[in-house]
Amino acid sequence: MKVLEFPLARITIGFILGILSTNYLNLSVTFTLVALTVVIVLFYTSYYYTTNKQKRVTYFGITTYLLAFCIGITTQTLHTESFRKNNYTNYQGIYDKPHLIDFIINEKLKSNNYSDRYIATIKQINQKPMSGKMVVNIKKDSTQLNLEIGNCIRIKGQLFKNSAPKNPNQFDYSNYLDKKNIYAQLYIQRSDIAISAQIEKDIWYYAARIRTKIIQNLEKNGFNKTEMNVALALILGQQQDISPEIIKDYQYAGVTHILSVSGLHVGYILIFITYILKPIPNTQKGSLIKLITIIVSLFAFAVISGFSPSVLRSVVMFSFVTLGIHLRRSVNIYHTLLVSIFFLLLFEPAFIFDVGFQLSYLALFFIIWLQPILKKLWSPKHKFTTAIWNALTVSFAAQIGTLPICLYYFHQFPGLFFVANIVIIPFLSVIMILGIIVMILAAFNSAPTLLVLLLEKSIFYLNKIINIVASFEGFIIRDISFNNYLLISSYLLIITGVIWLKKPSFTKLTVTLSSIILLQISFILNQKKAETQNEWIVYNLPKNSQITERTGKSVTLFTTDTTLNNASNNYSLTSYLVGNFGNLTSKEKLKNTAYFKGNKILIIDSSGIYSKKIKPDIIMIIQSPKINFERLLKTTQPKMVIADATNYKSIQVYWRKTCMNKKIPFHSTAEKGFYKLD
Predict the structure, then answer these.
(1) Distance (Å, rounded) from C-alpha 26 to C-alpha 21?
(2) 563: buried, middle or exposed (CB in 10 Å: 19+, 13-18, 0-12)?
(3) Given 103, 357, 590, 635, which is the most exposed site by the fewest CB atoms within 10 A?
């Protein structure tokens, strides 16, 4: 790969590896800075040795990449807010009791059925200056509460630390928030909120005001709410209010990426701004004016859209492209891509863990790298056919590049993605150009009703087309098991295969075939591991008691609610089956006794009836039975007690204390999550 011959490519890779390694290395700030200092000394020593000898030496290259690696570790460590002394996680007893908390609303998140959700920055705790971000959950009720970005709020409430998933193989939202330096959540009532008259007027406040102004003007022009929410996602990257049904259609059609503002969207904006600036002459002064105007406009758009990773990536990359054109230098797209990655991660290393960031860069890289090869496979004679073929090859290149990571994160594959992408491109071109014009005019209270209506109808028909494509559910492959080993071996196969296709040779073919063998070995090892596993799991579900017993790849489901006994309508079960390469082979009603690996398990339900003659190893209690718990323990003498989430919390407190007094382990799934016996 020629791109690796560029020194910044290897430096960027070392830098990224340094950031990723912080997941596994628990290093203090002091140790990190000392290590960085030592490596800098080694770097300058090797540089001095190289210049004196007037020849290249391996040591200088090694210390350069080692320095990039250490800079990556240091960057991530310094950006980890929990290491700062004034971060709220270092406040004594922060999670133990309610505190007087002053915070500022920074961002509105997508609401759920129970709460309106925001990201906020803490300013004070008990009138002591503190810092850090948290998620604020405000319970919905009949009263109207319109919070704005920049609102200063005081509340007496208790912070709750992000909790790990309570069921196996589910999305780890706690880890996701931790990567964003958000370590806690606050749950409050609307009536408890005291909003200050003072507003924090920073760049985010003014960006939110512009967005609010645009929305208000569009509503005045009668813009349908459903289509307007899609327009705000397409143009401004605001996805909070899109209905779940529309998001589902976009996912099934394989076009979710168009709802995230990225390179395609920023490209349209760049074309639009360049067209407006066309009358300015290409003199030295005129070119400088164009350069400054374009870069300022792009970053202004990034601010208004909320500085999402995909927008930042595109804005930074196109800014470097514009700068290269201004300096009259040929722009190498690989170099531009690498520079944008390096700069973005240098200022915000957490972006590397963002799925949108990963998908965005992978898609763009494979479009640049793989699409020219696919394009050469056929040379159409007509312009229309050529345009269709170009769109197809771009779509295939992007899909091939992102397929493994999509399977890893989402475990599904939309078979009609190429059809949807070809069909929506004409609509998207019209919508983007029209949308940019409408949004700009709406920001100045002058959006013509005719243009608003055209934009609304364009999005209406776009949604209709995507809905039709998504309705062919037979082409959507769901619940695909895919783990780390398959992810790495898949990308190894794709990369070696493309390298071989670009310039075939016997050595490259051998490496590609070896990659195929490695992928097959990964499949075989996963299957072997799945076939040798045996485990018994109690799930954490508040309305339904659920147990799975696994023998190899076969999984038996035991449940009290037979309406949730299918994997298709049982998220916790689906996550487990997909994450463990398992198959649901049978479903049974939960009984009062169970046996697993020599363990006798007594299950007591709401009836409270049990046989006093049974001497179980484990007691599982469900549905809050009215029993004399002390007598139960004395009669049965179990080695372990399990209480699932169908029991009242108040009763579980008493059970826990009783078990502690009798020195019997007690496991509450509501507190500790699922229980596994293997």
Answers:
(1) 9
(2) exposed
(3) 635
The pLDDT tens digits of the residues spanning 320-377 come to: 777 776 766 655 677 777 888 888 888 888 888 888 788 878 888 888 888 888 888 8
Which tokens belong to 116? 């309106």
Section 258-273 average pLDDT: 73
Q: What is the 3-state secondary structure (H, E, C) of 332-353?
A: CHHHHHHHHHHHHHHHCHHHHH
Q: Which residue in the block uniquely carries the two structure tokens 């589910």? A: 170
Residues whose CB is less than 8 angstroms from the CB of residue 329 and which lie 6 or more positions away in sequence, other chains included: none
- Report how far Cα 206 is from the mean position of its chain's Cα atoms: 27
394/400 Cα distance (integer angstroms): 10
Helix count and strand count (H, E) for the chain: 21, 20
Cα dist from 493 to 483, 517, 598, whole Å? 16, 9, 45
Taking the CA atoms of residue 36, residue 42, residue 44 and residue 46 in that order, the dihedral angle to the nearest 10 degrees is -150
Q: Both tokens of residue 242?
A: 């899109």
Tell which residue, 257, 261, 255, 259, has the closest CA to residue 470: 255
50-90: pLDDT as tens digits: 766 655 567 777 888 899 999 999 999 988 888 888 999 99
Does the pLDDT of residue 557 top 60, yes or no?
A: yes
Most distant CA atoms of the chain, gap in Å: 97
The whole-number pLDDT of residue 546 equals 93
495 contacts: CB under 8 Å, gap ≥ 6: none
Q: Are 312 and 237 in contact (CB under 8 A)?
A: no
Mean pLDDT value of segment 515-525: 94
**What pLDDT score does 563 carry?**
62
pLDDT of residue 524: 93
Residue 98 has phi, psi (to 5 degrees) of -65, 150
- Give every CB contact of residue 162 below 8 A, 6+ residues apart in sequence: 173, 174, 177, 178, 182, 183, 184, 185
- Residues 242-252, mean pLDDT to the nearest whole number: 84
pLDDT band at 384 (very low <50, low <70, confident <90, very high): confident
DSSP assignments along 445-491, one per residue: T---HHHHHHHHHHHHHHHHHHHHHHT-GGGEE------HHHHHHHH
Residue-level pLDDT at 493: 94
Q: Which of 162-166, 285-289, 376-380 has the highest mean pLDDT?
A: 162-166
What lies within 8 Å, CB to CB, of 203 at 6+ separation is 303
Between vectors from CA 246 to CA 242 and to CA 249, what angle results, nearest 5°?
150
Which residues, other chains included, contact 369 with Cβ-Cβ below 8 Å and sequence gap of 6+? 397, 498
State the DSSP H helix or E strand holding residue 232, giving kind and residue range, or none if neither: helix 225-236
Cα dist. 145→115, 192, 238, 559, 648 in Å? Answer: 12, 12, 20, 41, 32
Where does 277-382 have alpha helices with state H? 284-304, 309-326, 333-347, 355-375
203 φ, ψ (degrees, to nearest 5)? -65, -35
Which pair of structure tokens corresponds to residue 17? 């590896």
The model's pTM is 0.85
Interacting residues of 5 by C-beta distance below 8 A, sequence separation 6+: none
Write down the pLDDT at residue 251: 82
